[in-house]
Amino acid sequence: MKLNSDRKIIHVDMDAFYASVEQMDNPELKGKPLAVGGGGKRGVVSAASYEARKFGVRSAMPGFTARKLCPDLLFVRPRFDRYQEISKQIRKIFFEFTDLVEPLSLDEAYLDVTVNKKGNPSASLIAQEIRQRIFDEVGLTASAGISINKFIAKVASDYNKPNGQKTVNPEEVLEFLENLDVKKFYGVGKVTQAKMYQMGIYTGKDLKAKSEEFLVEHFGKSGGHYYRIVRGIHLSEVKPNRERKSLAAERTFSENISSEIYMLERLENIAEELQKRLQRSKVAGRTVTLKIKYSDFTLQTRSKTLPYYVSDAAILLETAKELLYQEKMRDSVRLLGISLSNLNTSSGQKKKEKELKEFEVIQLKFDF
């Protein structure tokens, strides 16, 4: 498998997106340590401004921990409708350069500009122009990574944050990856990082020295992935029509709850929120999953697949209630969530058609 150096991929990543939107909309928050999320005892940081990050505040961190690290930290509630509005403005700019845009979330996307609408042969200049357009028209800064594939572009976009960009040219790819700390490899989490460190694998060069058999033995299927990416091989294309596989809504409670009556009240609100999200996305699904996080932080999920597509809050709630009563609760609960998967997207429809055909075959066998 050879290194493909023909493609020109850009990964654009907005800088502290949620927090930056809040600071843009409220000038009094500019230059101050800010967290988007809940600052209460059970609140969680969704995003942190760069002023807050200097104190060690990070996303997914409990609010009380963030306050300990940064006593002057300001909390604001997230406004997802506003973030979606801004995200649409940014994507509109992307599409002026290429139709091959693969959004990963509201604040980041891959762009394949190998052949682009501007006829510009320089992906680096395109990234620079996109970032300038975002700043001029939206008022926010973005960072970008530019290289021959999605993996390297993603890693590079984090290199000169905030408000910067990094280009890894084809002839620089192997050296760039060899000098990279393995914790910088996209997809290597803290557990894998610790395991690699224990094995003496600290850099891409150390990783490259290991055989594919060794990596597969110690990291399973991911081992083959690590073997390829450290050699600059990542064949995944920019997919402009990424299908959503599930939609969910969940709530973390300020106090643990053990009463099923209270749980049902919370589930009703969660089901209504999920219905809104489904309606906005114009999708329905068949598999309802109830997510339960207990007070000791253990997580449990219970699922049921329905014979028809649903998006109605009442049906979601009834199914969630059935799953809630499926077995006895082990402890008090700190979080509840409902998700809907097996959606009626094109792949979901194909899966449904396959199931129906299999059912017809079984019926024919019985009829015979």
From TrEMBL:
Coiled-coil annotated residue ranges, if any: 257-284
Keyword Coiled coil: yes
Subcellular location: Cytoplasm
EC numbers for this chain: 2.7.7.7
Site (Substrate discrimination): Y18
Active-site feature positions: E108
Sequence positions that bind Mg(2+): D13, D107
Top-level EC class as recorded in UniProt: transferase
Domain UmuC: 9-189
Subunit structure: Monomer.
Name under which the protein is recorded: DNA polymerase IV
Lineage of the species this protein comes from: Bacteria, Pseudomonadati, Bacteroidota, Flavobacteriia, Flavobacteriales
Underlying gene: dinB_1
